[in-house]
Amino acid sequence: MSLPIAIVASGNGTNAQAMIDLMKQGVLDVDIRLIFCNRPNARVIERAKAAGIPWQMEDHKAYPSREAFDAVMTEALKKSGAELIVLAGYMRLLTSTFLDAFKNRVINIHPSLLPAFGGGVHAGPDALAHGVKLSGCTVHFVEMEVDSGPIIIQAAVPCDAEDDEESLMNRIHVLEHRIYPQAVQWIAEGRVHVQGRRVSVAKADRKLAVPGENSLVWPPLEEGF
Question: Helices (DSSP H) in 132-224: which residue ranges?
Answer without folding.
Answer: 165-188
